[in-house]
Amino acid sequence: MEKGDFLKINDYLWEIPQSFPMRVPARIYASERILEDILKDKSIPQLINGTTLPGIVNYGLAMPDCHQGYSVPIGFVGAIETANGVISPGACGFDINCGMKLLTTEYSEREIRPYLKELAEEIQRQVPSGLGVGRQIKFSFKQIDEILKKGAPYLIEKNFGWKEDIENCEENGQLSWADPSTVSLQAKKRGRDQVGTLGSGNHFLSIEKVEEIYNKEIAETFNLHKDQVVIMIHCGSRGLGHQVCTDYLKEFMPLMKKRYKIEIEESKFACVPFASDDGQRYFKAMAAAANYAWANRQMILYFIRQAWIEVFGKEASLPVALYDVAHNIIKRESYLIQGRKTEVIVHRKGATRSFPPNHPEIPERYQKTG
Question: What is the pTM of this model?
Answer without folding.
Answer: 0.96
